[in-house]
Write a structure and sequence with these properties.
Keywords: Leucine-rich repeat, Repeat, Signal. With 420 residues, this protein is α/β, with parallel strands linked by helices. The chain has 8 helices and 27 strands. It binds 2-acetamido-2-deoxy-beta-D-glucopyranose (NAG) (4 copies).
Length: 420
């Protein structure tokens, strides 16, 4: 009867001894399997139990089984992996920095980085990665930086970042991203800086749906044909939303419908063909709007602009066509400041280009008079000429090209002649 407890005790001691040797960092390498923790893959340098560099190439897959589970900094540069599988780094529970730059990565599977509770920095740069597929970056938490710059990312699938939260920097710059697809950032919350690449040519409806609590969302150097209805629907709690240095084309109606709680909305240095509608309504809960340095090629129609802010409106350094339609701007919400004429400029006609509106000697009452409606509309429309712009856009465009309603006196006079 007494031999069983003794046997148990012996086994227990043996097990404990194994565990102790396994967790002793500097113990000499034991037989394979018994002491995996101290192995170092042949292609790598293990600088310490927490820092491993595998930068000399030769790895075609991630040597997960041979890596010390104590690793905190893991660098796997210039190898030849093409796939990162689901939970590719499972077990490396102390890992803080993971860098996979300069690999031949083309596929990242769903939940590739799951099981890394201490991860702070993830870098995948200079790879041929073209698509961020659904759930590939899902479930990451408390990261300082996710660096995805300098890849060939042209598409971000919906849910790519589902459940990912508390990210300081998410960097997507230097990628050939053309389309921000519907719900591309759905489920991503609490991001301090979300930086997009230049050259985006299309923002789909609901592009930012489900993106919640963002510090800075910067959209720059875009080349859009139009900004379409519901682009910003479902975007919530943004400290700064800036749309800058872009060709926005035609800004259509309902662009900001369904967007809520934006502390600072900034439109800066954009070229805008026309503001078909620009409505910031109370439900948007925008506090401050800065409209600065933009070039408008066509003045918005009366009523096209509505601005309800809880804070400050700044409209400065913009260029508007100084034609008879400027009237609607000067007496509309964009010009709701005594300084407006001193700090905004004419883009045309040519001889007043770049002059401040206030400095124009020829800006007389006749020039600022409203355009006679029949200049803009060939036939009577039930809702005045804004309806013409909405429903007869193509007609109107060709009309404008052929009969510019400038307030150059000769042109204005001939215009009046024409309309009389
Ligand atoms: C690891 O990540 C931290 C936190 O983001 C960062 O401060 C540090 O510089 C990184 N260390 C290395 C060696 O990359
Ligand atoms: C990169 O991966 C692709 C397919 O995933 C393969 O066709 C190509 O040969 C690889 N290139 C290098 C340099 O390993
Ligand atoms: C509006 O501008 C004033 C003066 O620059 C500033 O004191 C105030 O804090 C601003 N309001 C908001 C809500 O930012
Ligand atoms: C101008 O601003 C004042 C005060 O903020 C506001 O009451 C008024 O409605 C604004 N006018 C226009 C045309 O937006």
């Amino acid at each position: 009867m007494s031999s069983r407890p003794a046997l148990c005790l012996t086994l227990l001691t043996a097990l404990l001894a194994l565990r102790v040797s396994a967790s002793t960092a500097n113990a000499p390498a034991g037989p394979v399997g018994a002491d995996q923790i101290n192995t170092c893959p042949a292609e790598c340098f293990c600088l310490s139990k927490s820092e491993v560099l595998c930068n000399t190439g030769g790895l075609t897959k991630i040597p997960l089984d041979e890596l010390p589970t104590t690793v905190k900094q893991l660098t796997l540069h210039k190898n030849s992996f093409s796939h990162i599988k689901t939970e590719a780094f499972a077990g490396l529970r102390l890992l803080r920095n993971l860098s996979l730059d300069h690999n031949n990565i083309t596929v990242i599977k769903a939940f590739a980085f799951r099981g890394l509770p201490r991860l702070r920095e993830l870098s995948i740069q200079h790879t041929p990665l073209a698509v961020l597929s659904a759930f590939s970056f899902a479930g990451l938490q408390n990261l300082d930086a996710v660096r995805l710059s300098h890849n060939r990312i042209h598409r971000v699938e919906g849910q790519a970042f589902a459940g990912t939260t508390n990210v300081n920097w998410l960097l997507l710059d230097r990628n050939p991203l053309k389309v921000v697809a519907s719900k591309a950032f759905s489920g991503l919350t609490n991001v301090k800086h979300l930086i997009f690449p230049s050259g985006v040519s299309r923002l789909e409806e609901d592009a930012f749906q489900g993106l919640d609590h963002v510090g800075l969302l910067r959209l720059a150097y875009m080349d859009l044909v139009s900004v379409d209805p519901f682009t910003f629907r479902g975007l919530r709690h943004v400290h700064v939303l800036t749309i800058q240095d872009s060709d926005l084309g035609l800004v259509r109606g309902k662009v900001f419908e369904g967007m809520a709680h934006v502390l600072n909305l900034i439109l800066k240095n954009n070229k805008i063909d026309a503001l078909e509608e620009f409505h910031i309504v109370p439900a948007n809960k925008v506090i401050n709007l800065r409209f600065e340095g933009n070039h408008l090629l066509q003045n918005p129609a009366p009523g096209a602009v509505q601005i309800h802010l809880a804070g400050n409106l700044t409209v400065t350094k913009n260029h508007f066509p100084c034609d008879c339609r400027l009237h609607a701007v000067l007496f509309g919400p964009l010009a709701n400041h005594s300084d407006f004429r001193a700090h905004n400029y004419c883009i045309k006609p040519l001889h007043v280009n770049a002059q401040a509106m206030a400095a124009m000697s020829s800006m007389d009452a006749a020039a600022l008079a409203r355009c006679p409606e029949h200049i803009w509309c060939e036939e009577e429309m039930p809702h005045g000429f804004s309806s013409c712009i909405t429903f007869k856009n193509n007609f109107l465009r060709s009309f404008l090209v052929h009969f510019p309603c400038t307030y150059d006196e000769n042109v204005v006079n001939s215009r009046y002649h024409y309309s009389l």
